[in-house]
Design brief:
two-stranded parallel ribbon; Double Stranded RNA Binding Domain; single chain
Length: about 90
């Protein structure tokens, strides 16, 4: 199972990083949308089910960091990437 192998690799990386006192900083890409009621909604790519909402962008980013911490089960400070790759719409 590929997912299991990736998890084992992530755990090994964490143990190595912790043992060598290397700060762990991860970047996450998020999708931000506005719902029909005006709320901003973020979804963290690569973390299924990790999402939150807020009324303004600053609050959304803070809540997204909290959601990532909860998802990962730790108090590490996640860094959200501001590198935008793009959005593509296709018709099928």
């Amino acid at each position: 199972m590929v997912d299991l192998e990736l998890r084992k690799l992530a755990i090994a990386n964490f143990i190595y990083t912790y043992a060598h006192n290397i700060p762990m900083v991860r970047k996450y890409t998020i999708i931000v949308e506005k719902d029909e009621e005006g709320w901003l909604v973020s979804e963290v790519i690569g973390l299924p089910g990790c999402h939150t909402q807020a009324k303004d962008m600053n609050q959304l980013l803070e809540r997204t960091k909290e959601a990532i911490r909860a998802y990962l089960g730790s108090e590490e400070e996640p860094e959200i990437s501001d590198e935008f790759i793009g959005v593509q719409q296709i018709e099928v």
